[in-house]
User: Fold this.
Amino acid sequence: MDFTLSPEIEDYRRRVRAFVAERILPLEADPASYDAHENIRLDLLDKVRARARAEGLWALSMPKARGGADLGRVGMAACYEEMNRSIFGPVCFNAAAPDDGNMWVLNALGTEAQKDRWLQPIIDGQARSSIVMTEPHPGAGSDPAGMMRTTAERKGDRWVVNGRKWFITGAAEASHFILLARTSDEPRRELTTFLFHRDTPGWELVRRIPIMGPEEHGGHCEMVFDGLEIPDEDRLHDVGRGMKVVQTRLGTARLTHCMRWLGMAKRALEIAHDYISEREAFGSKLIDRESVQLMVGEAAMDIEIGRLLTMRAAWKLDQGDFARKEVSMAKVQVADTLHKAIDTAIQLCGAKGYSKDLLLEWMYRYARQARLADGASEVHKMVLSRFHREQGLDFWSWGA
Assistant:
């Protein structure tokens, strides 16, 4: 098993690391860099994005013909981890959720006309996007096929959408939307996916839902659909194949969360390391105390376990496998590891770690969503249990 990165991927990884260190990390220390929702200010973001694009570090997951680097999931894993050494990092490279996952599925399943109209502006940084799936109770959450309440009824060459969605990430800033709605009650063919623009009438953004924060740009919003009309040409993939669209997107999108979270977990230990290397207590520096070393060593080991699981899942996806088992394992492990690494770092930094003098409290609040986003950890553990029941000892196969 060879984990050596190709020369091309290693070059991108090193350049991303240098860009983050030189151009993004310094921004975190300036309160003026932040918007009202504790993310990088949009006008400042535009300047950083222009520089990243000029240096060829832009939309690395997308085809070269459309302005990306076509690195594949393995290359994305190496580079996305470096990007999220900064809390501002991924969005500066056009590699943040939800745009990253939306670009991926549009590139995989869109027609050429749809790619030109809906995908290319996102790649170019001219449009932001959102995927519209989750609904309030009793609507769709972890079980969209069984619980989807939002409907799309065909009328001639158009579809009329009615329903309610919430916790729609990025909706307040998005102009391009991917919508999942029920189009029939036929088992396994209940849902269909559509594309619509912010300016299309028939829907309303009700509110930006207050959360623990900090927030992605565009927040997490509640939306109501009351007669939204979408032409059939803006249907993404076949009628009744909405779950295929979702699965195509989420396999990679869940893993890109893991890639980015690993970078943040490493940064948390980096912050703690700087503190314990200088802080003295009872006649010695904290870094020389065995109790501190045990805490750091355990967190570092857990991060490495997460990296290995993430890279194996990335490799399997690049081989054309759905890698559902591997992605679920990575998602559970890395979500827990992110919280543990930040919690450990706060404990090591003491009161300073709990204060806003360090970024750790920002990370801690952000990290709590990891065990919920793109499927709660319990749902992924149920997936793993099902694989184990079906595969037995082959659950731990070394094969591809």
